[in-house]
């Protein structure tokens, strides 16, 4: 019995040590980027693998924020990400609600079609999206970037909402109908509050994707650099004959702060949403 307990303890600690090692390897690039953001370019090149800089260069952050016009890019990215998340959540939640709660002709065909779009490379849709946005007269505008970002099926979020809503007891809807609640009121006041974990998961993932988006903001802001987002704004640090590596590291560190804050704020709901979807 004692030997068996010792073996279990050794196995448990071995698993912990392996997980700690993987955690250190996983977080190393992030720590290295933060450290590099405080170095000079010469120190970055000559001593790139050292963690602590010889002297902390806080001017890198000032250069990233002001010289590279990141203050404007930051505001643009916030506007694009917030509107994209709001639209995607609304559309995917309503689509998932209908697919999860109602049975209608063509339902399975519709789900099969949108699921098939997962296998379509995103680059193939750039041309029709560009022509559509250009026809609407929204090229080189933030509205055009937002519409381009919200385009597509967002299959993952639709399936998450569908699975979640399909598991809610039907008695809730029947009770709401008896109280005189209509379709919209039932969806907004009853179903949406019950889907906080899925809402948090959708918000976090879509916010991360929109915040780090590069291709679509680049295409739709080519003629207006002042409308660029942070991902595209990284080009400011790439010159014709040189690259400002430490300025880029500082800019990347700045751009990560909102994502970290959002994840910390909603991590409990995010874990519940992922765990619930896996269980379902």
TrEMBL record:
Membrane topology, as annotated: Multi-pass membrane protein
Keyword vocabulary terms for this entry: Cell membrane, Membrane, Transmembrane, Transmembrane helix, Transport
Domain of life: Bacteria
PANTHER family documented for this protein: ABC TRANSPORTER PERMEASE PROTEIN MG189-RELATED-RELATED (PTHR43744), SN-GLYCEROL-3-PHOSPHATE TRANSPORT SYSTEM PERMEASE PROTEIN UGPE (PTHR43744:SF8)
CDD domains linked: TM_PBP2
Database matches in Pfam families: BPD_transp_1
Predominant location: membrane
Domain ABC transmembrane type-1: 74-266
Subcellular location: Cell membrane
Species for this entry: Paenibacillus radicis (ex Xue et al. 2023)
Keyword hit for Transmembrane helix: yes
Protein family according to the UniProt entry: Belongs to the binding-protein-dependent transport system permease family.
Record SUPFAM superfamilies: MetI-like
Protein name: Carbohydrate ABC transporter permease
């Amino acid at each position: 019995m004692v030997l068996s307990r010792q073996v279990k303890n050794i196995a448990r600690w071995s698993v912990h040590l392996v997980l700690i090692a993987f955690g250190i390897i996983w977080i190393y690039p992030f720590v290295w980027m933060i450290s590099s953001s405080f170095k000079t370019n010469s120190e970055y090149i000559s001593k790139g693998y050292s963690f602590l800089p010889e002297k902390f260069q806080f001017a890198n952050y000032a250069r990233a924020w002001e010289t590279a016009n990141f203050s404007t890019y930051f505001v643009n990215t916030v506007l694009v990400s917030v509107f994209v998340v709001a639209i995607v959540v609304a559309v995917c939640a309503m689509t998932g609600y209908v697919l999860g709660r109602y049975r209608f002709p063509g339902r399975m065909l519709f789900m099969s079609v949108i699921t098939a779009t997962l296998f379509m490379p995103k680059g193939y849709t750039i041309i029709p999206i560009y022509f559509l946005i250009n026809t609407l007269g929204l090229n080189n505008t933030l509205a055009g970037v937002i519409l381009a970002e919200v385009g597509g099926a967002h299959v993952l979020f639709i399936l998450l909402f569908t699975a979640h809503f399909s598991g809610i007891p039907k008695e809730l809807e029947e009770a709401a109908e008896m109280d005189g609640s209509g379709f919209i009121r039932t969806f907004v006041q009853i179903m949406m509050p019950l889907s906080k974990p899925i809402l948090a998961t959708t918000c976090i993932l879509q916010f991360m994707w929109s915040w780090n988006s590069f291709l679509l903001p680049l295409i739709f802001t080519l003629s207006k650099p002042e409308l660029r987002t942070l991902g595209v704004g990284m080009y400011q640090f790439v010159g014709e004959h040189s690259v400002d590596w430490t300025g880029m590291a500082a800019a990347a560190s700045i751009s990560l702060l909102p994502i970290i804050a959002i994840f910390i704020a909603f991590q409990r709901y995010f874990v519940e949403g992922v765990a619930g979807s896996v269980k379902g």
